[in-house]
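$ fold --in a.seq
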Amino acid sequence: MEKFRKFISRYGWFGLVRLFFYPVTTLLTTPVRLIQTLWECRVLLDGKWGDYPHFNPHSVINSLFYWTYALNIYRYGRSGVSPYLGLGNYPLSKGFYYSLISLYAYWGAGAITLLFGMFGWWLFHLLWLEIADPEWLILVMFLSLISTTFYVNTFSLQNYNALGWLFFPIALYGLMTGQWWIAAIGWLLTSFGSITLVFIGGILSLAVSVHNLQLTPLLAILPAGLKTLTHFWPNLIQGNILTTSMNVLKGIGSTGKNTKYKRQSSMGMDRTRWYYALLYIQFGIATAWIGEETYLLWTGIAIYFVNSTYARFADEQSMYMMMLSLATAILIQNENLLLLPFYWLLVSPVPLYAGFPSMKVLDVVPRLKPFTIKPLLNAMEQFLKPVQKDQRVLMVFDNPDNQYEKVFDGYRVLLELPFYIASCKKIHFMPDWWAVFEVNYEGAPEFWGRNVKEVLRNVEQWKVDYVVIYQDNDTELDKEWLDAGFESLTEFCWKDYSTLLQGTTLLTPTWWLLKLPDGKRI
């Protein structure tokens, strides 16, 4: 009832009526929003692609997570060690799940990479012209293009994996038409964009192999699998493949053995996930009712449930794109007007639950545009200006009580900005996610605590040179830090960028870079 009251308070009683009619609303308004957002993309014609990582502030700042790792791999190689990640001397081979082509593309031209990958995904459905009625194919492709799922993935959710989705329809076409050599080429090309999609492709290929009682469909994934195995070579050389694999299993929540930070709210079937599951199931039932094969769709639904409840090996947006891809391919091959409304419900969930981060959305997708990261990068560079190369900065946070979702006090996205600038300046800014994963075992050392006593203890333990503290709404530094001998050097107030971040609900704390009390640095 509390959530219902919040909904009424935010959207009013008329909001319930709008939710009821959302399938019609999205059908009419999403094409308009698509045209408007594409028109905003003309700013990319100036060629400054590196300034525009994404299409909304939340996703832009979050994209710096991938930029940081790309920068470190570029400097030190996949087999190298970075002194500026994790606890220091971080083996970059642990990032075996990154495809370098897509990672570098996303680093250098984020918005362009997303447009190229997603619209390429859409255009590759023209492969079905060989077996589908052209008018039916065009109709289905048009519906997929103006769907909520396509819009939110293109302009809000996707990341470097977009280049993997680019080739996914090729593999799916080969798999569903029994042309295994096309499937093999498609999966191999997909592997250069996303390792996650190779894993999904392997499960789908296995499903086809079992259904057809033949080994050939499974062999189609072999070239992509062999290519993916090359990513593990640095781990084999360095002898840390077991440790790396165990850390990944802990990170995705598939094992709790000797795991310190456990997933709570991010695992399990919450209201939103059940909503999506029902959308997928209703299309599966409708397709089966008219007598068409649906085993691939049900395989996708099974993958969705496993990813939501047991092992989160893929982000939510990958699940959305997987189901969009499967449903679109199935509908193309099964020309039946009765399936269209069920397909539309699957591919166009209500925008309220579509996954637009930090935005007030109900039944109409928001108008978006390429968002420049340059002002924030310049401001953060000034904030960290006093810190010299190879020095270490500790940012202080409350103890998350072993809960994965409470790490970094809810400021995870904002932290990607100093992490990236610190790597650019060759500064070790900690703790980051890689440090959390390194100490993700029971009895591991900690870097938590926000009071002066705890911070001074961590200063000694981690041999840091500077400290960054935050206060949620205060504009003046708490006097306790000055009384303890700390000196405020620079200040970064997120409220100063509220105009730049307009339309989002990102948190707006104030950060201070503090010089340590005399005699506290070893």
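$ fold --in b.seq
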Amino acid sequence: MADPSTWRPAPGTIPTEPGVYKFRDEHRRVIYVGKANSLRARLANYFQDVTTLHPRTRQMVLTAASVEWTVVASEVEALQLEYTWIKRFDPRFNVKYRDDKTYPLLAVSTGETIPRAFFYRGPRRRGVRYFGPYSHAWAVRETLDLLTRVFPVRTCSKGVYNRHQSLGRPCLLGYIDKCSAPCVGRVSPEEHRDIVDGFVSFMNGHTDQVVRQLTREMEEAAAELEFERAARLRDDLEAINKVMEQQSVVLGDGTDADLVAVHSDELEAAVQIFHVRGGRIRGQRGWVVERTEEPVEALMQDFLIQFYSDAVERALLDARDEADRVERRGVDRYSSQPPRPGAVVPREILVQHLPDEADEVATLLGELRGAAVDLRVPQRGDKRALLETVGRNAQDALRQHKLKRVGDLTARSAALQDIQDVLGLEEAPLRIECTDISHIQGTDVVASLVVFEDGLPRKSDYRRYRVKEAAGGGHSDDVASIAEITRRRFLRHNQDRLSVPDEEAEAQTFADEQVEEMSTDVRRFAYPPNLFIVDGGLPQVNAAQKVFDELGIVDVTLIGLAKRLEEIWVPGEADPLILPRNSQGLFLLQQIRDEAHRFAITYHRQQRSKRMRVSELDGVPGLGATRRTELVRHFGSVKKLREATVEEIAEVRGFGPKLAAAVFTHLHPTAGDGPR
């Protein structure tokens, strides 16, 4: 860790104007971004006696190796630039209010020719409209099950859709009228799109028109003595009402508002937000974040800027997707339109505590909305009562979080301390990486690299590798594969470390004959681990150590963890280290090794399944792995592909008549060139 006095800017060189500053570590990675009305006064706080600083701030200052700043014209510009840099650099010491990837969502793939509605968890993608988040997975499925009675949209996967399209008959949902069956032409793509638009419009809150229409049709059917149709419409109306039951009116004046509350202790803070539209609660979300020495007002300010800036950015992407969809269909408008970028910021934002710079924050939110925003603390009435309810939810969320994590936090701290003691490290290994190899008799060799920070998995930094056969025709063994993966990972680290990263630079890839990196994250990966674990004994550890010596890696501790007796092998040592069986450190190492094994096995099964599924297509001239996969995905199976004509194969993306004929001939060796 660097001494702050060695890199502190000279007195008088820091300007007194408002601006935004960045702290960087020794690897030039941005670790903290902040803003200040006076840069000189704010930065001076970081260079006082480190023993008086908050523990998190002290750790940041000791990790940093330099500080930079940018002067801006106003405090509003400082707020905007701070958000932009936090989004861009993802600094580890900033509090980030991000969507929990485990939230269940209801998604509609509006970018497809035949859109479908489905349950979804994960990051948001272009061409998909999302509704939620929901508190439970069953709530998404129940909502979808109820609404498909009224809006029979497609809910099946692409493979199922293509299979029933080939069979010429719908699935069970089509027979019970919970799908309009576009796969067999029961409705045209345009008619199905209208059904989807109605579904999206209803989910956007336009429910009154649907209820009135169903009620009118039910009364007309009863008057015409069509009692079966009237009963079905009655059931549809009950399904709609059941979906709307949970959206009770909480503000009688039809207010559009967001209510935000924060509850905190010395270490963490819980944030809750209720979205009220038309006087009804349309959604609820919550976060628990680490707290620094900043007051609650500063937490509120950071949350408002990050949350609404992200929301407007997502709305812009949705609007762009909708514009592309309109252009593809060649029409001017739809029955449902995506939310305008400014519509995600309501006219009223009611908070428990006003931000530090309330006027500047209100101005920035007004720019995002395109109109004035009323940012205030309600003093009385229904709004005050509802905000107190939001506050109680925040308090309960923090309490539940503490109950769930207190034992884990203590165990993780003890585990890291055990590992530090047994390996004789100067500090606890806060970042640990582990690699494992998976194969069956030397075929489909793959490897995984998992990352744990502070004793918890950091899945955004996971990597997976495909190890190819050696040039001589043989297969790589575990020792050679471990060496290759280690070289790949730390060659990447060395290359990035030797070149100072540009602020606009993205992650680089390096060609390699033996290893292909399959990354789940495109950001730079130059941040080194404190501890690197290989799955295996002394041979694997010594192979990895040779790579370390070759690349000059001296700042990373290397060990191996053997499965037989859970021994810890250190390079160059004849005897392993043995941790007590009840050691928290041993338990954490096992957990990390097992996670690497799970991740490798999962990827190996994917590769093996892909190879076996398209093995019948091996040997087709000009047909590579990507096109083989696309071909099988299009038809659903090799069996269905064998029944296709040359013309049908040529319709697959990336296929022309010549390649389609080659595929057909390969699958029908006695058929010549196939039917024309």
